[in-house]
Design brief:
The complex is a heterodimer of chains A (133) and B (193). With 133 residues, chain A is mostly helical. Helices cover 62% and strands 2% of the residues of chain A. Chain A is built from 6 helices and 1 strand. In chain A, helix 4 crosses helix 5 and helix 4 runs parallel beside helix 6. Chain A is elongated and about 95 Å long. Chain A starts with 11 loop residues before the first helix and ends in an 8-residue tail after the last helix. Chain B has 193 residues and is mostly helical. Chain B is 67% helix and 6% strand. Chain B has a two-stranded antiparallel ribbon. In chain B, a hairpin with a 2-residue loop joins strand 1 and strand 2. Chain B starts with a strand and ends with a helix. The N terminus of chain B is likely disordered. Classes of the chains: A mainly alpha (133), B mainly alpha (193). At the A-B interface, helix 1, strand 1 and helix 2 of A face helix 2, helix 3, strand 3, helix 5 and helix 6 of B. Strand 1 of chain A pairs antiparallel with strand 3 of chain B, so a sheet runs across the interface.
């Protein structure tokens, strides 16, 4: 049937195109078997190579990567040293809490909070800062 | 039918398609599964390559290359589309590479004992050989996408959506390619005969 126009009926060209090869050369099967054996051997060899690969050969790569990471971290630290406060932790925290939205707290505030004792921290955190914002 | 699953990026892919199951077995190193696929698909693949290349011997050579690629690509195969579209996309790629490699080569019809005349074709052998040669020469004149779309539609069990996937075009474009290929082929055959 003509797929583009089913009412047209069978197209004689289809008979020509459908004439197909129904047999293969006698040697094709043996060629395929050789190929199959070759491909299976190839995969076994590849797996063996992976398993027998001496991992210590990659040691220089890992050492290089580790050194690069250390240098990067050191450079970042030197380029942006942590903020320090000259004032007491209590004053610093209170000042920040009074003037800033809690969602903008940064690492320096977190560090200051750690330095406070529990009682001072509780006092500061219970202070009604909202009225000052 | 038994389902086979394979983990892919954290997801489980489930396939009941026997071709997909064979591919998963091949990925696990089962050479017998490659033989199953070869026995199932070798004639459709050889037919497509023969009509595209105009050489029965080359078609068998390239078919072996196609199944080599199937084996090597099996670990990366994901049963998300249909196997036939994937397989014929490989076959088409190999065919195009072969056409580029060899430039112009005269087309030669396969020995008649390899060919089946469909239906009640009672023409004698010489007439059949002549028609086959005419068909091959005319097909060789078609633009490759038209020829491939036409051959896929007539010679393989692929749906238009699968043909579109194999050709890497939209489904609507497949209909256009088939229609144009068919019209052009008729003209070429009439002109040559």
């Amino acid at each position: 049937m003509n797929p583009l126009n089913p009412n047209e009926g069978p197209d004689p060209l289809d008979a020509e195109l459908r004439r197909r090869i129904v047999r293969v050369s006698p040697e094709l099967d043996s060629r395929f078997r050789s190929l199959q054996a070759e491909l299976q051997q190839e995969r076994r060899d590849a797996q063996a190579r992976v398993h027998s690969f001496p991992l210590w050969l990659t040691a220089p790569l890992w050492a290089g990567a580790a050194a690069a990471a250390v240098v990067s971290v050191a450079w970042l630290w030197l380029a942006s040293p942590p903020q320090t406060t000259s004032e007491s932790p209590e004053n610093f925290v209170q000042q920040r809490l009074l003037t800033e939205d809690p969602f903008t707290w940064d690492a320096s505030l977190a560090e200051a909070l750690v330095l406070l004792d529990d009682e001072t921290l509780e006092t500061l955190l219970n202070y009604p800062y909202e009225s000052h914002l | 039918m038994k389902q086979i699953t394979t983990p892919v990026s954290g997801d489980e892919i489930v396939s009941e398609n026997p071709d997909d199951q064979a591919m998963l077995s091949i990925a696990a190193g089962d050479g017998g599964a490659l033989k199953v696929l070869f026995d199932r698909w070798r004639l459709p693949v050889i037919n497509f390559l023969y009509r595209s290349l105009g050489s029965h011997a080359d078609a068998e050579d390239i078919a072996l290359e196609v199944f080599t690629e199937v084996w090597r690509a099996a670990p990366r195969y994901r049963p998300q589309g249909t196997f036939s579209a994937w397989l014929f996309a490989i076959a088409r790629g190999k065919m195009r590479h072969e056409l580029r490699r060899r430039r112009r080569k005269p087309v030669v019809s396969a020995p008649l004992e390899f060919l089946e005349a469909p239906g009640n074709d009672v023409r004698n052998a010489s007439e059949l050989a002549e028609r086959e040669q005419l068909l091959l020469e005319s097909l060789a004149q078609l633009p490759e996408p038209q020829r491939s779309a036409l051959l896929f539609s007539v010679q393989t069990p692929m749906t238009p959506a699968e043909i579109a996937a194999a050709l890497g075009v939209k489904k609507s474009h497949v209909y256009v390619l088939i229609h144009r290929g068919r019209c052009q082929l008729k003209k070429l055959m009439e002109k040559r005969s």
